[in-house]
C-alpha cells in the first residue's frame, strides 16, 4: 500500500489514520446520523427498562461515561458491542436500526430502498415517529405500566382495549 504524504506525517508524529481517512481526508468531528440514531435507540430501550447508565455499563463492563458516548453517537458501537447490548437490553440487534430514515439507508449498502426484506418490521409503526412519541414521558409511563402486568392474557386484553379506543386505521 502506498501511503500519502499526510498519512506519513501523521504516522511519524505518532498518530495513524485508516486507509480510507488517509485518502478521503479528515474524518469529521460530528457524529454520523446513523450512530446518533443507534445511540438514541440504546437510550430509549434503557429508559424503558428503567435502567441507569451505570447499571448498563456494569452489565457490559463499561463506565457510565462510555454508555453516555454511545447514546450521544460520539462513539461508534461495534458489532460485538451491539450484540452484547441486544442481550442486556433484551431486544434483537435489528431494534437499534428500526425506523432508520430512508435517506441514511440509501448509501449503496447491501440493500437498496426498492428491495426490502419482509418480516416483523413491515407491520410496525416505529419508535422514530415524526413527532417522536417515545420521547414523551406519558408514553414511557404507559409502556412501563403495560409490562408490569404479569399475566400475558390480561396484557393482551389491555392492548385490545386500548386499540379499540383509538380511531380505525386505514390499510391499503
UniProtKB/TrEMBL annotation:
InterPro entries tied to this protein: Cro/C1-type_HTH, Lambda_DNA-bd_dom_sf
Region (Disordered) location: 1-37
Domain HTH cro/C1-type residues, every copy: 42-96
SUPFAM superfamilies on file: lambda repressor-like DNA-binding domains
UniProt GO MF annotations: DNA binding
Biased composition (Polar residues): 1-21
Protein name according to UniProt: Helix-turn-helix transcriptional regulator
Taxonomic source organism: Lichenicola cladoniae
